[in-house]
Amino acid sequence: MGEKRESFHLYGSLERAQRSTGSHKAEADVVSMADSSITVDDIEGELFKINRIRDILVRRESELRYMMDDIQLCKEITRLKKELQKLVSLPDNDKSDEDRQREEELLQQIHKLVETRDFLVDDVEFERLREKEEDKEMADFLKSKFQRQKKVLSRRAATRAQQKSSPLAKTGFTLLKECCGCTCSVM
């Protein structure tokens, strides 16, 4: 009795089961991860979309971090202002030297926090302008890419129209290329 052995091959995220017999063909072990109906342009388009989504998420994360920092600064400023308000509301006759010193410290702390918040607002504005410039550059890039693709597609359409108009003028190589594309083993 001949014993058959099963071997499983994993290629990236593609799993393929193959019954192994004594003879292996080199072509049988080659597994493409790409679906044959997907073009390079489709893959590039999908990668572009994924990168764009990632960029949007990174921007949103940055915005949320700025918002959190702003909220924390505002809370701290509000807390310090309330404390300062209590000290200021005391009559000058009832204030101790510690109270006056604390007032000065609170004013300095509030001033530092306000400056920090101003820097934060400036950073947010800088990021907004940078993102706007990136968006403009991306729009220009996409516009030029689509114009190039339109030109290539119009050339292909013109070539196909010319080939269809004179079927007898085709060479054997052209017929093979049209038949099988670039994947033909004869080529």
Walkthrough of the structure:
The chain has about 190 residues and is mainly alpha-helical. The protein has a domain at about 40-155. About 70% of the residues lie in helices and about 5% in strands. It is built from 3 helices and 2 strands, in the order ββααα. A hairpin with a 2-residue loop joins β1 (about 5-10) and β2 (about 15-20). α1 (about 40-90) runs antiparallel to α2 (about 95-165). The chain is rod-shaped and about 95 Å long. Mean pLDDT is about 75; it is low at about 1-25 and about 165-185.
Write the layout of secondary structure elements.
Layout: E1 5-11, E2 14-20, H1 40-89, H2 97-165, H3 172-180
Antiparallel strand pairs: 1-2
Helix pairs in contact: 1-2
Report a brief summary of the structure:
The chain has about 190 residues and is mainly α. The chain is about 70% helix and about 5% strand.
* Overall body shape: rod-shaped
**Total strand count, please?**
2
Biggest beta sheet summary: 2 strands, antiparallel
Element order: H for helix, E for strand: EEHHH
Q: Which regions contain 5 or more consecutive residues with pLDDT less than 50?
A: 2-25, 166-187
Q: Work out the radius of gyration.
A: 35 Å
- Portion in strands: 5-15%
Quickly count the helices. Answer: 3
Fill in the keyword field for this structure:
single chain; 187 residues; mainly alpha; two-stranded antiparallel ribbon; 2 strands
